[in-house]
Amino acid sequence: MKKSELIMVVRKIVREEVAMAIKEVVNEIKNPTNTVSKKVKRKPVKNKQYTKNSILNEVINETAKSEEWKTMGGETYTSDKMNDVLTNSYSKLMSDNSNGNLAVEMGVNPKTAPDFLTKDYRAVMKKIDDKKGKV
Q: Model-level pTM?
């Protein structure tokens, strides 16, 4: 696969994700939920040095201070809920309606799509599972 093809695929996926996020934000603005946010006193967070890049450090520290990321969608997300997040976000890609053709699921023309999007990997994954004893 060429680098330009990979870049185009990544751009398409990012656009789709951004479009979904924008739709959610617009829906939330149009129809706000009536949840009452709890005001919790937070102890001040000192700025930490995560990286040598000052801009990146500033963004990371700002995120750590806001703590909004801890309660996405009104509940606390932990690694235990990763399956829910992936299922909600990527269920279309994970569905079996494409007969193993990821290009079809992504809305890409299979004739012009890179090989990794058109190859059916189910047989390979089944052999891996069989080898690990997960049948």
A: 0.27
Residue of 54 and 70 predicted with greater confidence: 54
Secondary structure of 39-52 as H, E, C letters: CCCCCCCCCCCCCC
> Mean pLDDT of all residues in the chain?
76
Residue 113's CB: how many other CB atoms inside 10 A?
19
How many Å apart are CA 100 and CA 27, to the nearest integer?
33
* Pair 81, 65: CB distance under 8 Å: no
Residue 95 host element (H or E) = none
* CA–CA gap between residue 126 and residue 135 (Å, rounded): 8
Contact status, residue 72 vs residue 84, Cβ threshold 8 Å? no
Q: For residue 95, what are the contacts with CB-CB under 8 A and spacing of at least 6?
A: 105
Q: In this predicted model, what pLDDT tens digit does every residue of 110-135 receive, in sequence order?
A: 778 777 777 778 888 889 888 888 65
How many CA atoms lie within 13 Å of 50's alpha carbon, on the beta-carbon side?
13
DSSP string, 107-123: T--TTTS-HHHHS--HH
